[in-house]
Each structure stands twice: as structure tokens, then as C-alpha cells.
Amino acid sequence: MVKPDFISVLLNKRSTGFFVSINDLRDKEFSGIQLNPEEQLALNTYDKYRIEVLNAETDEEKFHYRYRQLQVIANLNDWREFLNR
């Protein structure tokens, strides 16, 4: 079951400085650099979470809203947030 509160927590989190995001990991992987097991786990966990959230939306407008939220999360949150998800 999708827990939208997790999205709210991530969107309202204050940055504490420099971090590596999910999209940074994706860029690293696309550049041919091998991810370590924790980074790969976080990326896989984010992808599964993203699919779960988007598949749960039945309204097209809400779907696009969630899609944009997930883009923000992938860009502006530390990848470690998805290690224990």
C-alpha cells in the first residue's frame, strides 16, 4: 500500500548541506560508473516506490501531480532516504 505521508516527509525535509540524490546516482550509473550495493539498492527501492505511487493514482490530474512530486524527491533528497524504505 502506498503511504503518501512518506512523500510529504521528503518534500518538507530541510537540506543539511551537500548530498547525492537519486538522480545523481542515475547519472553516475548512466556514465558507466558502477554503483556500490547500497546505492543500487536505493535506486531500485526508489524505482519500485515510484511505480507503486503512480500506479495507485486513478485520476489523471493527481497522477501528474504525484509524478512532479517524485521528480522533486529524486532531485532534492539524499539517496540514503531510500535505503530503509
Can you describe what's shown?
- There is one protein chain.
- By secondary structure, the chain is an all-alpha fold.
- Helices cover 65% and strands 0% of the residues.
- 15% of the residues are buried.
List the defining traits of the structure above.
mainly alpha, 85 residues
What is the helix fraction of residues, given as a range?
A: 55-70%
SSE series: HHHH
By secondary-structure content and strand pairing, the structural class works out as mainly alpha
What oligomerization state is this entry in? Answer: single chain
Number of distinct beta strands: 0
Q: If helices are DSSP runs of H or I spanning 4 or more residues, what is the number of helices?
A: 4
Low-confidence stretches: none
Shape: globular
Main sheet makeup = none
Straight-line distance between termini? 13 Å
Mean pLDDT, all residues: 87
Question: Strand-residue fraction?
Answer: under 5%
Radius of gyration: 13 Å
Write the layout of secondary structure elements.
Blueprint: H1 4-12, H2 22-30, H3 37-56, H4 60-76
In a nutshell, what does this entry contain?
The chain is mainly α and 85 residues long. Helix content is 65%, strand content 0%.
